[in-house]
Fold this protein.
Amino acid sequence: MQKSCNILPEMFEFKINKKDPHSRARTGVFVTPHGKIQTPIFMPVGTLGTVKSMTPDELIDLGSQIILANTYHLYLRPGHKLIKKMGGLHKWTCFKDPILTDSGGFQVFSLAQEKGYVDGKKRKGGIKITEDGVEFQSHLDGSKHFFTPEKAMQIQSDLGADIIMAFDECAPGDSTKSYAKEAMKRTHAWAKRCKKEHEKLQKKAKHRQALFPIVQGVTYKDLRIESAKFMAELDLPGIAIGGLSVGEKKEKMYETIETVEPHLPENKPRYLMGVGTPEDLLECVERGMDMFDCVLATRLARHGTYWDKNGRHCIKKEKFKADSSPLCKNCDCYACSKFSKSYIRHLIAENEILGIRLLTIHNINFLLNLMQKIREEIEKGSFKSFKRNFLKNYKHRQGEK
Amino acid sequence: MQKSCNILPEMFEFKINKKDPHSRARTGVFVTPHGKIQTPIFMPVGTLGTVKSMTPDELIDLGSQIILANTYHLYLRPGHKLIKKMGGLHKWTCFKDPILTDSGGFQVFSLAQEKGYVDGKKRKGGIKITEDGVEFQSHLDGSKHFFTPEKAMQIQSDLGADIIMAFDECAPGDSTKSYAKEAMKRTHAWAKRCKKEHEKLQKKAKHRQALFPIVQGVTYKDLRIESAKFMAELDLPGIAIGGLSVGEKKEKMYETIETVEPHLPENKPRYLMGVGTPEDLLECVERGMDMFDCVLATRLARHGTYWDKNGRHCIKKEKFKADSSPLCKNCDCYACSKFSKSYIRHLIAENEILGIRLLTIHNINFLLNLMQKIREEIEKGSFKSFKRNFLKNYKHRQGEK
């Protein structure tokens, strides 16, 4: 299936190391211009070219292998032209490891959603969809912008990430089938245009980028299968599933992944977009997914919440006021190796940056460690029992929503 | 003058290393339970038990020797009793170096000032001064509290810093002479009570603390001299000058220090409270001051401002948008050794924590380096010419106010 890599690995080659005999889980290595990525992998989100509160060095110390940045946000401010002028995202942010940029598609539509997304052709919130692209208003100043598949490729070429995403329409989870189909068809046409523009751009570019198309189709099984087949045929270095974890029930999400997965090329990394609770990571690795991203780890930290093996906890609770123990007893992160719950609680209560930093370090470390453990367990063939044990402790206390 | 220190240095001994032949500047070493302090020294401010945005390790990496924490703030939240229960400030914050706590006096009065401080006995803002102490309202929830000299000592004993401050009344810079005198007399009476209470507390305490009294008297020379003499006679391990840098003109501040200084014990560290612009540090070291603190370094950072040898600069300026150079070319701090002005500008414009962190590191490093340089120049006998050269570059560009 996968190409051999005896001497030098080929750029964007994906090599499967081990397949779990009891599930669809697998481990692998994806080669990018800025380094290899061990999968399954969680990618911390650095929306504006910074994983909130962290330095690039701190991320590397935690074992982060790749981060994500947002095309939509960076396009609006400071602008992709500036970042290109400064030598691209890697040089500008001093982040030496691989970077993935999304296409801006999700943000364009989620913004509209926030302002009153309506099923059908008419949408509120200043968003206008045509076959050519999407007109939207900046969430910063209301200024009007127009994204096409070609534009999304041009912006991402300027940003210079290792992995870039096709421009897609992310239809809401409660879309009617007819609308879901229409959005999917548009996403397919746009993916083809993205591929064409990307190939054109790569010819004159010095940096190599891998384009991933995005499977859509809401939770309609036949649409998802049709979309998976279509995107697989584009034969790009990886493939993503979008439009999940957008409000539908967990079971529906898992079911949709199970439906799609057999139709994805096996020898390419599968990126499940926007998913990143500990529970979901386990469930979706089991269902054959390789790459994940989610803002939850950093966002929860800013709101004073941290994970441990029992679930999530809010450090602001009164019971932690005089608690001299670390967030997690067996955690090796900087926060846990040094500070007490009592002190971190005080920092968060006072909105002190150090509190946010410590919880962010802990939460990202928690997910990266979980993924490392998952990889190890797959290699050992014991992933299923690891998952079962983890979720037994995890769910019986404070579950995720 | 100073005691010899051939074998083990005595706790709170102050040893003068070198006196500048051309000014009142001197270098020295002050011995505290958590380590020696090389003077002249700048103390970063950690109001709530954290130097905003920084870890204790980052501070130590920058060469910080001692930090300051605020009695008023920590008393209100999380409360000194909790901190005592958690083992004191050092253990709770994981800061291993010396800590100084102020008495809360300044905050009690500056709060009233913010709410409409009026010269005379009647004051707005819920503050009521008696000979016994001060009733004030919390800036957090308006709750009423009463601080006495004894209470200020008890709180600071619980916090457990190496250096603690006497409870004083900080009269406004525009006070009438009669009011300034009244406030000074009260401060003298309170200092005696502080000393008595402190001695009582130290008898049963395990940790050794040095109490510093605070010279007051607004900018009235005879009052300042009277206050300096009174405080000197208390024969405590150090002495502070309070009530300056509170709105009076720079020249008035320098003049007042020149008036006070000859009346301070030479063999004890002199702490000039709340002063910390590069310019003021130089001017006041020249006038015989040894210890300084100021929130400016961290506060300016949060507002996007940094120092270099030419003055202060706002990183948000348009001209820095595509500037690939570091904040300072010859600076060895993490921010300057890694990141461009362009990227830091973006981070600050987006209110990203990393931006605040980088400017904080740079600003604190700038002041700590300046103090180190000052110590070296005093040792070499070239302090005056160093100061002259520094201020020639510094003032002709963008001066401090």
About this structure: Chain B touches chain A through 35 residues (CB under 8 Å). The first helix of chain B runs from residue 56 to 61. Chain B has two domains: 40-294, 301-396.
